[in-house]
């Protein structure tokens, strides 16, 4: 991690929203070889980034945000409570680092949004009638599939 002021990893705090932030200490980076095309360069240089965020050990995010982030992370969440993001879209380490961090921050921003509570509603009288009419019509179609002698049932 560098001391460059334009580097998002340089400061101790990384802002998620206006009031929320994560700490640099909760992040770990590993550089691995990227897959896919790239010629000889892809076999020599480790440009892909594996960013690990310790969600379980984080103390700056509220519990409800952490639980929503865990749900949004899905299979990227490990049993130890870490979110692992792999970034290998770009050919340089720096771009892949920025990409992985931005994807993590976007996931955390989406986790800060509280879901709108669902209001229970009753079906309208018209929708009930349409459903029953459709059932009757479907029943008539099925009834007509019988043998020719069974029409008077």
Automatic annotation (TrEMBL):
Name the top EC class.
hydrolase
Residue ranges constituting the Prokaryotic-type class I peptide chain release factors domain according to the UniProt record: 33-49
Q: Which residue stretches belong to region Disordered?
A: 111-153
- EC number(s) on file: 3.1.1.29
Among its keywords, does the record have rRNA-binding?
no
Q: Which UniProt keywords apply?
A: Hydrolase
Q: What biological processes does GO assign it? A: rescue of stalled ribosome
Query: Listed GO molecular functions?
Result: peptidyl-tRNA hydrolase activity; ribosome binding; translation release factor activity
- Compositionally biased, Basic residues: which spans? 116-153
Q: Which Gene3D superfamilies match?
A: 3.30.160.20
Q: Which domain of life is it from?
A: Bacteria
What name appears for this protein in its UniProt entry?
Peptidyl-tRNA hydrolase YaeJ
Q: What species was this sequence derived from?
A: Roseibium album
Q: Which gene encodes it?
A: yaeJ
């Amino acid at each position: 991690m560098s001391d460059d002021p334009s580097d998002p990893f340089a400061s101790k705090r990384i802002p998620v929203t206006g009031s929320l932030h994560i700490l640099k200490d909760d992040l770990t980076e590993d550089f691995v070889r990227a897959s896919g095309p790239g010629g000889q360069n892809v076999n020599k240089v480790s440009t892909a980034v594996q960013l690990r965020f310790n969600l379980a050990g984080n103390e700056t995010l509220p519990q409800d945000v952490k639980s929503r982030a865990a749900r949004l992370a899905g299979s990227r969440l490990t049993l130890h409570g870490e979110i692992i993001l792999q970034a290998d879209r770009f050919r340089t380490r720096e771009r892949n680092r920025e990409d992985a961090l931005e994807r993590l921050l976007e996931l955390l921003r989406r986790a800060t949004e509280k879901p709108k509570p669902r209001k229970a509603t009753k079906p309208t009288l018209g929708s009930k009638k349409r459903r029953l009419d459709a059932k009757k019509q479907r029943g008539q179609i099925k009834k007509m599939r019988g043998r020719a002698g069974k029409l008077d049932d």
